[in-house]
Amino acid sequence: MIKDNKVIKYFLYAIGEIILVVIGILIALSINNSNELKKTRIAEKVYLKEIKSDLIQDTLLLSQVIKDHKWRIAQLMSQDTTIDFIFEEIIGKLPKVEGVSQLEYIFFTDRKFRPKIGTYNSMISEGKSNIISNRELFSNIQNIYELRVQNIITIGEDVLNRSIQLRNKYAYEIKYGDFGSPIKITDKRILADFYISSRLLNYYTRQSVLLKKDITELIEQIDNEYHSIE
Q1: Residue 199 and residue 86: Cα distance in Å, rounded?
Q2: Tens digits of per-residue pLDDT, 6-27?
Q3: Does pTM surpass 0.85?
């Protein structure tokens, strides 16, 4: 009986030791997971902060693009009163122009939207897209960068290519044409090209305004998420 009692005591002691070891392991795992989660949240905040900074720069650039192209639309309309200025409720009023001193100014522009996408591309290429815990927010960021921004870039290339084509097409008129100052154009060929260009510029400007609005809203979402992360 004495021996049996000792065996039972040793058995209970062994079970107790095992339980203590298991508890210790669980505590260690819990602490490790907590530390890893903390590191992940810190990294998430870094990404959100940098993406927000990039998007703010994008809104500033879009403001310049919108301003530049509204001025060009106003110039085109000063030469052709038949040009329709559509979507004024989105784009806003055009600036007043006194006229154009050089024909080349109407045809050519290199002002286009070049987004800052380094942080987003880095996050995707490193396989860290899951680091943003709010999946709806990530989906909104992804939509801006992979759909909306790419669409604007494509339209901007079309606008620039159109400008280059017209400058080449009317190289003689630009260099030798006597249009006076300010310019007053009556050549129907040029006016027809103006009309087509104005509609493309109008579309580009409208899309730029809408993108800027959506980016501004996204910045607010990112800011709210950033401050909610402990």
Answers
A1: 9
A2: 666 676 677 777 777 777 677 7
A3: no
